[in-house]
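Model: Ready when you are.
Researcher: Fold this.
Model:
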Amino acid sequence: MKANLRPVLLVARRALLALVVLLLGYGAAGLIGGAVPVNRAWRAPERGIEIWVESNGVHTGIVVPKVAAGVDWRSLARPEHLTDPRYALYDHLSFGWGERAFYLETPTWAEVKPATVLAAAFGSARTLVHVDHVPRPRPTGDARRVVVTEEQYRRLARVIAASVAPGAKHHRGYGPYDAFYDGTGKYSAFRTCNSWTGAALAAAGVRVGWWTPFPVTVMWWF
């Protein structure tokens, strides 16, 4: 019996070792990619549009004013989409993008399930845009203030708007102040919710990492 088990155990050990090497390689690649800057020459203007880059430790997002530089988000993020429409009185919105199951099932690390993460990592076209109605953030370790020009902000807004599916349906959020909207694009280990944040900022012209798959690879730039 023991002799018969040896080949099985050997295969299992090799598979486990390969998985560990893969995860370590992915982590190292993510940290390296996040450390390589794009828009290296970018400098924040003295005056412009104030945005915020935020993280809850799992997902990152971008906080923007509801109305600024000719961009008005109120037609997308409507009061009736919220469990409590009174939160729509706040003057800022937080945008994030991600895989549907990963977003809905992992609001914090406590809810992270390996099966959910693994399924999302292999690729999913079921994506959502998460929108929170929030007051103007205060500078903290979880929210970093960034100033951009009006043109940079409009470029950022175009990326965010393109991430929302045309005629997107809204879905109930985590609480009374947020909602989810059907998204565009495919989620994978190479295009995560955090790399979406980095790519959106890069498209606007902001200095950020070349590839930012983890929250830390986004936040350490601000």
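Researcher: Now this one.
Model:
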Amino acid sequence: MSKEDLLKVNNLKKHFFMGKGQILKAVDDVSFHIQKGETFGIVGESGCGKSTAGRTIIGLYDRTEGEVIYDGKNVHNMTEKERFAFHRKMQMIFQDPYASLNPRSTVQEIISEPMEVHGLYPNKKERLERVYQLLEDVGLNRDHANRYPHEFSGGQRQRIGIARALALDPEFIIADEPISALDVSVQAQVVNLLRGLQKKKGLTYLFIAHNLSMVKHISDRIGVMYLGNLVELTTSESLYKNPLHPYTQALLSAIPIPDPDVEDQRGRIILEGELPSPMNPPSGCVFRTRCPYAMEACATMKPEWQEIEKEHFVACHLYNEKVTGDHNRPQVAAAK
């Protein structure tokens, strides 16, 4: 894998102004980078801001603060011409495979529309052959080209969405919960398809999901989000073997283990309380209202981003010697 950074996200914030002075802090000071050819996963509960982060990165939302640097260029400072070219390089796969497809268009029209907009394959015969090739790449066949979205299953519709994302031959794809609306049996098929396409076409992924098992299966590195904040970031292997943040530990403890004997013996971490509103997040550490290890400092000080182990970062006062006096690390059974 290349060590070249294709995407850099620096102190990104996306706030929505709700009226009457209320501000919804959907993404609040998030930073990470993605290397060319890797898959970077973002996980977290519904409402944590992971999808908003993806949409802000690609430019569907304008950022409130911070910057998104793609291949050396600031996405939000691009001219109209630069942004048009940028959208050939970065594409998005959406969560709902039915809502994201025009029900009045055939599959051929859906996949070929981006090519027409960008002036690719002006010859209709060549464009049609490109559509056929894309359908075959995602596990469908050319007979599907003249059908409409309602004639397909959820998994097939998501394959059509993937084919459309590939139509411009992009380098980078943001997959925004691409499997959450699918049956469990189909989820693995779609993830394996994405892995195969990545290897074949040299793609880079930002994979957003709340299914931690699937994120582990496809991701090289994973960032854990809570209430608009990134609380832990490391390699997939390290996150599952040695989770540091109490929130990450709780998420991993919820993953079922196929072995019933192991499942019965391990402890499940139950988080008490409701997810706070992003319009009125807790002071200091945003997780403190649900954290079993919360200390007095958690209410007044925002945790610093620290590298506890090589390439393993966490934002938690439990690992701040100035607060605890030692590395008083909470323990949890490693996820399998």
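Researcher: Key takeaway?
Model: DSSP finds eleven helices and twelve strands in the chain.
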